[in-house]
TrEMBL record:
One of its GO terms (molecular function) is ATP binding. The keyword Translocase does not apply. It comes from the Eukaryota. This is Asparagine synthetase domain-containing protein. It comes from Fragilariopsis cylindrus CCMP1102.
């Protein structure tokens, strides 16, 4: 990216349809969004008593593109006249909600993005090309982590092909501003309790992005992770009332589709940057990109005859492997996706070996309940996805899917 000047930040409006996309180097046909009669809910959703939005837009210099968070970065960067050489969006299969939102964001900011690349591939290509390297880089087999990381890896490989050295990502916004459903809490909960939980989560956060970027020769930068400008400000100044709005906001699942009332997080971010994605539902990377089906057993059952033979796993084969892993290795695998991941993990590392983690015998409380690798004080095992990962926890057992 390059910056030509730094004018005072100001808000952009998606109601301004005068912007024409005249670039000719995108790798897809230009969509005439003007003719789509798109409907926005910025006015209905914006709380006029809330001054946080304006503060956020003026105090924090953000930068990039995609869902609520990355589109806000792109919007902020545009106000600073920062021009991106390339914006990259990954679309897996043919039902990605990200695709149209990302194209719209690129369309609206066509003067600030030189080239928008849609990286499109099938689910089996995503697995075949990116799964081995992702497991090798991250040393995990947890399904949720892997699914999201595969999509990031595909984007990073494209960035590498484009000879980029630095990329901007949206990591951190969900943690800081209550993006995840499980961080919303209840309307009448103690605000201090919500803030304490949020602050603790943010002080312990780790992201797979840096390691993945490094594996493709890139440096990843996260504007929401800037300690002084963003993290310290957010933890000191924002509370549940700024981040979560219960029941009333009008939220959209797909661009051009109807809105419905729903509780949502990241309200101050949605209000601060009035983009086409501002009142879109928060989708995890795997959902937004369309990769989710690889986490479901049905994909490995080859229901439509489209799953390649080498990725198919019959129910009988899975049950036998599941039983063997439990009896011989004390490892719990909840799905066929995990079996795929764990087989590759064993092949890459020569068994259940980790570069930094010790593996303990069954029932040793130093080990994770799902994989026996050392767990320390963590409640979630990043390696196998067990939650709770502690032997003596009274939380209902769960393994992320
Ligand atoms: Zn584990």
């Amino acid at each position: 990216m390059s910056s030509t000047s730094s004018p005072s930040p100001s808000l952009l409006s998606d109601n301004n349809n005068s912007n024409n996309n005249n670039r000719n180097n995108d790798n897809y046909d230009v969509i005439d969004f003007n003719s789509m009669d798109l409907e926005w809910k910025h006015t209905e959703n914006t709380n006029s008593d809330n001054v946080r939005a304006v503060q956020m837009a003026s105090e924090c210099r953000l930068i990039l593109s995609g869902g609520v968070d990355t589109t806000a970065i792109l919007d902020a960067a545009s106000t600073l006249n920062i021009i991106f050489d390339v914006a990259i969006t990954c679309v897996i299969g043919d039902t990605s909600p990200d695709e149209l939102y990302a194209k719209y964001a690129a369309y609206k900011h066509s003067t600030h993005i030189k080239k928008h690349i849609i990286v499109q591939m099938t689910h089996d290509t995503l697995i075949d090309i990116y799964l081995p390297k992702t497991i090798q880089t991250l040393e995990v087999w947890d399904g949720m982590t892997i699914r999201n990381s595969l999509v990031i890896a595909a984007a990073f490989e494209e960035a590498s092909k484009q000879n980029l050295t630095d990329v901007l990502v949206g990591d951190g916004a969900d943690e800081l501003f209550g993006g995840y459903t499980f961080t919303w809490g209840k309307p009448k909960m103690c605000p201090i309790e919500w803030k304490n939980k949020r602050d603790t989560m943010c002080k312990q956060w780790t992201f797979a992005t840096s390691a993945l970027a490094k594996s493709y020769g890139l440096s990843a930068h996260g504007p929401y992770m800037d300690q002084e400008l963003m993290v310290d400000w957010a933890l000191n100044e924002t509370h549940r009332i700024d981040c979560i709005r219960d029941d009333t906001p009008l939220i959209q699942l797909l661009l051009g589709q109807p809105y419905a009332h729903h509780t949502t997080g990241k309200v101050l971010l949605r209000e601060a940057f009035t983009t086409g994605s501002s009142w879109r539902r928060k989708d995890p990377i795997e959902v937004g990109s369309g990769a989710t089906i690889i986490g479901k057993d049905i994909y490995y059952n080859n229901p439509n005859g489209t799953t390649p033979k080498h990725l198919c796993i019959t129910d009988e084969e899975f049950e036998i492997a599941q039983q063997e892993l439990k009896e011989k290795e004390n490892i719990i695998i909840p799905s066929k996706e995990y079996l795929t991941n764990i087989r590759l993990y064993q092949k890459i590392f020569g068994g259940f070996i980790h570069s930094t983690k010790t593996r303990y015998p069954k029932n040793d409380i130093q080990g994770c309940i799902g994989c026996c690798f050392e767990i320390g004080n963590a409640t979630f095992c990043k390696l196998c996805g067990s939650y709770p990962a502690q032997h003596n926890s009274n939380i209902t057992p769960y393994i992320s899917k």
